[in-house]
Specification:
Layout (H helix, E strand, L loop, with lengths): L20 E11 L6 E2 L1 E2 L9 E2 L2 E3 L8 H13 L7 E7 L9 E11 L6 E2 L12 H15 L4 H8 L2 E3 H11 L4 H10 L3 E8 L8 E6 L2
Parallel strand pairs: 1-7
Antiparallel strand pairs: 1-5, 2-8, 3-4, 6-7, 9-11, 10-11
């Protein structure tokens, strides 16, 4: 049995000894800027060469690759940066018509990357009608992130880390929808996932110091 590679997807079913469903990983990566942005890339190859999409690719299951390892590889190779923490799976998309090369089931993950990544855009500027259903995937992932942040331990730790501040929480919640400092503080203080400490941290050269919150789970 031949290994499945991305080039296999361009081969008609009758011409390929292994044809069925492939697993892919699409990464919704948000930058660590004061106003987090979403990382998008310009596709280097066919199909849709030159078009803007999420960073994504096949899971190299034949090499024993995990979803997290796949996400790390995709972000490194296609976006030219590294994940700053873990990942969290927020969706699985199985629309058989999503990819014209064949049926690919997408495992959608959210993650964080450093600030000022090339190609990152405000989430309000996500292009319409990106290939492979990536517009809907990106918007749905961001909505799910807003629902799970400070509620689901895996999602919260992947996106905020072991230590965070109110400013960081508010910035991330602001990506997911309208929020205020008061609403973000209430949500953070009520979350069982973090405990406020007396340590203060300045979020930016011009910002006011804020209390550090430590992850408990």
């Amino acid at each position: 049995m031949r290994s499945m590679t991305e080039s296999n997807l361009a081969v008609p079913p009758d011409d390929h000894p292994v044809h069925g469903t492939w697993l892919s990983v699409d990464v919704v990566a948000l930058t660590d800027d004061p106003e987090p942005k979403i990382v998008l890339i310009e596709r280097a190859g066919a199909p849709h060469k030159g078009e803007i999409t999420l960073p994504g690719g096949l899971l190299a299951a034949w090499e024993g690759e995990t979803v997290e390892q796949c996400a790390q590889r995709i972000v490194r190779d296609k976006a030219g940066t590294e994940l700053t923490g873990g990942i969290a799976v927020v969706d699985v998309v199985s629309d058989p018509g999503r990819d014209e090369r064949g049926h690919t089931v997408s495992i959608v993950v959210v993650a964080r990357v450093p600030a000022e990544v090339r190609g990152a855009l405000p989430v309000t500027q996500i292009p319409e009608a990106m290939p492979f259903g990536h517009t809907a995937i990106a918007r749905s992932a961001i909505l799910r992130l807003g629902e799970r942040l400070l509620v689901d331990p895996d999602t919260t730790r992947a996106m905020l880390g072991d230590e965070t501040t109110l400013a960081q929480v508010r910035a991330l919640l602001g990506v997911c929808g309208p929020t205020t400092a008061g609403a973000a503080r209430k949500r953070l203080d009520r979350s069982p996932l973090y405990r406020r400490t007396e340590e203060l941290r300045k979020p930016a050269p011009t910002g006011r110091p804020g209390h550090v919150y430590r992850f408990l789970v």
